[in-house]
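FAQ

Q: What does a record look like?
A: Structure on top, sequence underneath. For example:
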């Protein structure tokens, strides 16, 4: 029996060819003033997130930067991904329904649901269902849909009209090569699958490093969603992906000075640091992925210091 087949099903992310394939999100509704079903309203919506997950972290970032803490409530799952998925335990609870796992929410929304039980989940308290579980779409809703409720932040737009085309273009290759590239490298179960993905990962990191040698941010020299989407991957790179996912050709701290300065610049924006929980991040990867790290030993390093030196 192969080591992959011996793992719980939730850990079998690589296909027969040894390559990781990310599942497409299935709940794709939107919150907008023009939508008769899901309209913006303070206290109506709730986020379920993991501090460990880079995709969920995006939503926490935008919620904080847009000042939506009093508009959209949040529950955080426990860091350990179990056979039944993300659990609520040890002080990390579902404040709405007392669920034991995130999967309970998926079945509450759709009794015959057959997909993966991922975070983030944007939940509607009124209709008691999932609005959306695709992070890229959730952050765009948080970016503008609630502006009337937080007028002081309405002028902040991380996906402005005049930069949309460029942001979309940058997002496309960064997602495939870097955001998802670390997973395609780390979850590869054949040398061929690993080599196929780790090389483009570092070519694209080199490309980002060059871009940031000429500007403070990726697009329009202003903070946009392109930065926020990449940033949650970069802060996990040295403490997790470099060793755990075998992405060790270079490191952010030692080999990418412009990326490191950029990462510090964003970390030092007010409210951003509070969205980072390195304990959850490291424990999740090193103790949940036993097919990669059978001992569950967690390395002591947290990666480069992002609080110092001061950039902002």
């Amino acid at each position: 029996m192969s080591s992959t087949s011996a793992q719980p099903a939730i850990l079998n992310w690589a296909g027969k060819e040894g390559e990781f394939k990310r599942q497409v999100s299935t709940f794709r509704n939107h919150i907008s003033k023009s939508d008769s079903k899901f309209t913006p309203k303070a206290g109506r919506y709730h986020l379920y997130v993991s501090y460990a997950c880079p995709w969920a972290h995006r939503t926490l970032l935008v919620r904080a930067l847009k000042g939506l803490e009093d508009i959209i409530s949040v529950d955080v799952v426990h860091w350990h991904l179990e056979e039944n998925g993300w659990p609520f335990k040890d002080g990390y609870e579902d404040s709405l329904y007392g669920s034991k796992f995130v999967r309970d929410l998926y079945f509450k929304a759709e009794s015959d649901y057959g997909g993966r039980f991922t975070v983030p989940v944007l939940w509607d308290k009124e209709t008691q269902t999932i609005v959306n579980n695709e992070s890229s779409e959730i952050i765009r809703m948080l970016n503008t849909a609630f502006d009337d409720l937080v007028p002081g932040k309405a002028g902040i737009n991380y996906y402005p009209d005049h930069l949309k085309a460029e942001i979309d273009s940058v997002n496309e290759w960064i997602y495939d090569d870097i955001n998802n590239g670390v997973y395609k490298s780390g979850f590869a179960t054949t040398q061929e699958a690993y080599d196929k993905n780790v090389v483009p990962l570092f070519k694209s990191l080199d490309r980002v490093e060059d871009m940031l040698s000429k500007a403070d941010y990726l697009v329009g020299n202003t903070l946009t969603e392109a930065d926020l989407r990449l940033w949650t991957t970069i802060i996990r790179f040295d403490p997790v992906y470099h060793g755990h996912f075998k992405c060790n050709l270079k490191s952010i701290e030692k080999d990418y000075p412009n990326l490191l300065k950029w990462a510090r610049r964003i970390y030092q924006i007010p409210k951003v640091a509070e969205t980072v929980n390195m304990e959850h991040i490291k424990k999740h990867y090193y103790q949940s992925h036993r097919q990669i790290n059978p001992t569950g030993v967690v390395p002591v390093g947290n990666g480069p210091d992002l609080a110092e030196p001061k950039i902002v």
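Q: Is there anything notable about this one?
A: Confidence is low (pLDDT under 50) at residues 1-6.
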